[in-house]
Design a protein that fits this description.
This protein has 145 residues and is mainly alpha-helical. The protein has one domain. The chain is globular and about 45 Å long.
Length: 145
C-alpha cells in the first residue's frame, strides 16, 4: 500500500507548542498584527472602491476563503494546510499584480476581496492555524476557553 505524501509544514502542518499560549503572538505584538490586518482591510476596501468594482460581487465572495474550513473534515493537519493556504497574503498579492500587469480587472477585484477578507480576519484575531486544531492560531487560541 502506498502511503500519502507528507504535507508541507509551511502552511500549518507544524504542531503548536505546548502551553496555554505558547507559539502565539502576545501583548503588543498581537495588537500590532491585528492593527496591520485592519490596515490591509481598509487599504483593500479603498482600492476596491477606487477601481469602481461591483459591491454585490464583493458581498458574494467576501467569505469565500472560509470555504477551506471544509478541509477540516479530512483532519486537523489537512484543514490547517488548506485554511492557511487561503489565508496568507502572498497568493492574493500575486493575483493582484498579475491582474494589474495583464489588465485583468476581474483578477484585481478578486484579489482585493481576498486581501480584505484576510485583513478582516486578522483584525478580529483569527490567525493562521496550527495542525493541533482549528482554535490554535498564531494570534492565540480562539473561542471559549
Amino acid at each position: 500500500m502506498v502511503s500519502a505524501p507528507e504535507l508541507p509544514s509551511t502552511f500549518g502542518g507544524v504542531s503548536a507548542p505546548t502551553g496555554s499560549q505558547a507559539g502565539s503572538a502576545a501583548g503588543g505584538v498581537r495588537l500590532l498584527l491585528r492593527i496591520e490586518g485592519a490596515g490591509a482591510f481598509a487599504a483593500a476596501l479603498a482600492l476596491y472602491a477606487h477601481g469602481d468594482f461591483s459591491w454585490l460581487l464583493f458581498a458574494a465572495f467576501f467569505l469565500a476563503p472560509d470555504l477551506t474550513m471544509l478541509a477540516y473534515l479530512a483532519g486537523p493537519r489537512v484543514g490547517a494546510v488548506a485554511y492557511n493556504a487561503a489565508h496568507v497574503y502572498v497568493l492574493p498579492l500575486t493575483l493582484l499584480v498579475v491582474g494589474f500587469v495583464a489588465g485583468l480587472p476581474a483578477a484585481m477585484a478578486g484579489a482585493l476581496i481576498w486581501i480584505a477578507h484576510i485583513g478582516f480576519d486578522r483584525a478580529l484575531g483569527y490567525g493562521l492555524k496550527y495542525a493541533t486544531g482549528f482554535r490554535d492560531t498564531h494570534l492565540g487560541r480562539i473561542g471559549r476557553r
